[in-house]
Design a protein that fits this description.
Strand 4 and strand 5 form a beta hairpin. The chain is built from 21 helices and twelve strands. It folds into three domains: about 325 residues, Up-down Bundle (ABC transporter transmembrane region fold); about 160 residues, 3-Layer(aba) Sandwich (Rossmann fold); about 70 residues, 3-Layer(aba) Sandwich (Rossmann fold), CATH 3.40.50.300. About 65% of the residues lie in helices and about 10% in strands. Bound molecules: adenosine-5'-triphosphate and magnesium ion. Magnesium ion binds next to helix 12. The site of magnesium ion has 4 residues, from helix 12.
């Protein structure tokens, strides 16, 4: 949790050219649309600027001269400019929103496909909540910047400069008088920016806390309810919620002071124009039209100034978000196709470990100097106490992790040199924690692989004894399963994962037997299914069941990351070593039966 927050609280610069360059890369496919949007924006800003000027002309040239035709022309022109400004703003709005949505779509897709390419070790380091935030909140922040920040900053700056130029052109003395409040506005803006920046940081920090607490609670709901933690957790949530509320209200307070302050300073400028301009008009040094135009321009002058400071905040969070997104995209994906790939021809299924050592964290050695060779079609069991490194061994074969030292070969070819997809295609895996996706039973068995026909799905289910329970479900193979298979029993999930492994008909089978004990009847079904799964394949099984251990050709005994004994069941028993002790502890009960 602390790491997530520390990363999410970072508030960088409002503009970072390195990040901006990378962001522009995502805008590249839409550069025409972006250019068009900017042109439209400038045109609509120009149309806005034209309004007061037309009014000034109407007053000075036509109204004061009683020129009705001219007045009519100007009125028509004014109307036309209004319609034009409206149409331009409309198209420009749709266009910028479209660009924003498109870029968001692209970035989300990039993040998702990138995540899928990352090695498992990355997911060991990064909590789910944080990764979800990258693909949702952070992308949304970028969208805000694209659709209402970056582009309209051009417009704001253009309008500001335009007004300054027009005012100076109309009457430089009156213009300078208008600008007299600017230093005060600059000071107010600077103070506001610093304050709001800090309070936004607080808001973000506290919302991150709320999110992670929510996630933890929802995932662990059964524990929360069984241990009667509801009220206590609600109270804790209330605290987090309140602290978020306070931080947010503080932000609002700053806005509530800042906006009226700018408005007030603008009103002072307006009063000065009215007074000084009026005076000059009476004295005859200035026309009424100019004063009216000044009043209108000055009203438009302060609005973009106010908006710019808001946009500064948008830019700032967008930069922080893009920094986080790019950090994720910069994570090195696992190399799927090595430089000089070697094909695995129709594989026989020989596996050899040559002096393999492995550590997850470059500190603690989980496996040391592991060497063994499994001939094609052999059945081998790995046994050992919990934490001995059994699951780690098989994670190396499927290249979920890379060995730190030594090498692993399949059919004599180093698995690092085989395209990872080819390798994984020849290996069937049933892991300790079974993953069920939300979708139908059939989808869960063949995982949307077109090459596997519904008949093959059914046959696989049949062979591993999953068919009876599936056909008892209301819609058979089309029954919908819930996320994590929460509407299945533990035994049913196991049988389903067996069917999945069998349907892919792999040359090599890897099975990490679940430890949970199941009723005798299901136990028989599973035992039978495992035998069918192993038939005709090289099988490496992390075995907990005595029946499984007895049905393999030989056994590897793992102890604290080292191979301590290797041999057949009877041989190992005769040795009276680690295996014997393990056997006595673990299977004494089963022996009695
Ligand atoms: N993703 C990981 N990151 C860091 N350390 C890990 C990771 N997975 C396992 N370990 C560590 O590696 C060691 C071996 O774990 P492993 O999962 O291989 O044991 P195991 O023999 O399969 O145990 P079990 O019978 O309980 O499944 C343990 O000390 C564990 O703490
Ligand atoms: Mg394990």
């Amino acid at each position: 949790m602390s790491r997530e927050i520390s990363e999410d609280e970072i508030l960088g610069k409002a503009y970072d050219s390195r990040l901006m360059k990378r962001l522009l890369f995502f805008l590249r496919p839409y550069r025409l649309q972006v250019a068009l949007a900017i042109v439209l924006l400038l045109l609509s800003a120009a149309a806005q600027l034209a309004g007061p000027f037309l009014i000034k002309t109407a007053i000075d040239r036509h109204i004061s001269q009683n020129d009705l035709t001219g007045l009519r022309m100007i009125a028509l022109l004014y109307f036309a400019v209004l319609v034009l400004a409206f149409s331009l703003a409309f198209v420009q709005q749709i266009l910028t929103q479209w660009i924003g949505q498109k870029v968001m779509y692209d970035i989300r897709l990039r993040i998702f496909s990138h995540l899928q390419e990352l090695p498992l070790s990355f997911f060991d380091r990064n909590p789910v909540g944080r990764l979800v935030t990258r693909a949702t909140n952070d992308v949304e922040t970028l969208n805000t910047m694209l659709s209402s920040g970056v582009v309209s900053i051009f417009g704001d700056v253009f309008v500001l400069l335009g007004i300054v130029a027009v005012l100076l052109h109309l009457n430089w003395q009156l213009a300078l008088l208008t600008f007299i409040v600017l230093p005060a506005i600059v000071v107010a803006t600077l103070i506001f920016r610093v304050k709001v920046r800090e309070s936004y940081r607080q808001v973000r920090l506290r919302i991150a806390r709320i999110n992670s607490y929510l996630q933890e609670n929802i995932v662990g709901m059964s524990v929360v309810q069984i241990f009667n933690r509801e009220e206590r957790n609600s109270r804790h949530f209330d605290q987090l919620n309140q602290s978020h509320l306070h931080a947010y209200l503080q932000t609002i307070r700053y806005y509530a002071v800042f906006y009226p302050t700018v408005d007030f300073l603008g009103a002072i400028a307006l009063a000065a124009i009215l007074w000084f301009g009026g005076l000059k008009t009476i004295e005859g040094g200035l026309t009424l039209g100019v004063v009216v135009a000044f009043i209108q321009y000055s009203e438009r002058f302060f609005q973009p100034i106010r908006d710019l400071s808001e946009k500064y905040n948008i830019m700032q969070s967008a930069m922080a978000s893009s920094e986080r997104i790019f950090k994720l995209l910069d994570e090195k994906p696992q190399i799927r196709i090595p430089e000089n790939p070697q094909q695995l021809p129709k594989i026989r299924g020989e596996i050899e470990f040559r002096d393999v050592s492995f550590t997850y964290n470059n500190k603690d050695w989980v496996l040391s100097n592991i060497s063994f060779k499994i001939r094609p079609g052999e059945r081998v069991a790995i046994v050992g106490a919990t934490g001995a490194g059994k699951t780690s061994i098989i994670s190396l074969i499927t290249r979920m992790y890379e060995p730190t030292k030594g090498s692993i070969t399949v059919d004599g070819v180093d698995i690092c040199r085989v395209p990872i997809d080819d390798l994984r295609r020849s290996i069937g895996m049933v892991s300790q924690n079974i993953t069920i996706f939300s979708g139908t039973v059939e989808y869960n068995i063949r995982l949307a692989d077109e090459a596997i026909t519904p008949e093959q799905v059914e046959k696989a289910a049949h062979d591993v004894n999953a068919h009876p329970f599936i056909s008892r479900m209301k819609n058979g193979y089309q029954s919908e399963l819930m996320e994590n298979g929460s509407n299945l029993s533990v035994g049913q999930k196991q049988l389903l994962s067996f069917a999945r492994a069998l349907a892919f008909n792999p040359r090599i089978l890897i099975l990490d037997e679940a430890t949970s004990s199941i009723d005798t009847e299901t136990e028989m079904l599973i035992r039978d299914a495992i035998n069918k799964l192993m038939a005709g394949r090289t099988s490496l099984i992390i075995a907990h069941r005595l029946s499984t251990i007895k049905s393999v050709d030989w056994i590897i005994v793992l102890h604290k990351g080292k191979i301590r004994e290797i041999g057949k069941h009877q041989e190992l028993l005769a040795k009276r070593g680690i295996y014997y002790r393990l056997y006595q502890l673990q299977y004494a009960d089963e022996l009695v039966q």
